[in-house]
Amino acid sequence: MTESAYVEILNDDDEACKPGEIGRIVVTPLHNFITPLLRYTLDDFAEVGEPCTCGRGLPTLKRILGRSQNQMVMPGGNRVWMSISTQGLRGLAPVIQHQIIQKSITEFHVQLVVERPLTDKEETALRGHLLTRLNLTGGTENMSLKLDYVDAIAQDAGGKLEEFICHMAAQD
């Protein structure tokens, strides 16, 4: 889409990211002459790919990581993208959908839509897996993980299910 939009992936210093680096997406549409948008920030992040091998040398994205609200806040304020797939959880319990909400550095609420009530063994395995994946700093003893069983998980206005949401304030 390079012919219709100029897409930049910028680091924290507003410099262009190199292949393999992650930055925020900034877009300038090239076709809207009446109400132009210049360097519109989407609050999305992406990893820059190698130039296209088609011979034209067009820029590519290796992957789109999501919005800043989908980043987990670590002790010290660093942010990382948390990816826990429903398919991975299905190997432990009959999970249809899930959503993890970070309330604080150590407090997480997990909404689960399940096919049937979980056995104690399944819930223990699921809880252990989630605690291990969410704990990137070692030691789960101070972590709080609340499981909420729901009939449905609300999707955003565009119909997308956010699997991880951080509800912590920016200064936390």
Question: Key terms for this structure?
Answer:
172 residues; mainly beta; Luciferase, domain 3; four-stranded mixed sheet; 2 helices; 10 strands
Please describe what this structure looks like.
The protein has 172 residues and is mainly beta. It folds into two domains: 5-69, Luciferase, domain 3 (Roll), CATH 2.30.38; 74-166, GMP Synthetase, Chain A, domain 3 (2-Layer Sandwich), CATH 3.30.300. 12% of the residues lie in helices and 35% in strands. The protein is built from two helices and ten strands. The chain has helices spanning 86-90, 120-134; strands at 5-10, 22-29, 40-48, 61-67, 71-73, 79-81, 95-102, 107-114, 144-149, 164-166. It has a four-stranded antiparallel sheet with strand order 1-2-3-4, with no helix packed on it. Strands 9-8-7-10 form a four-stranded mixed sheet. Strands 5-6 form a two-stranded antiparallel sheet. A hairpin with a 4-residue loop joins strand 7 and strand 8. The longest helix has 15 residues, at 120-134. The radius of gyration is 19 Å and the shape is elongated. It starts with a strand and ends in a 6-residue tail after the last strand.
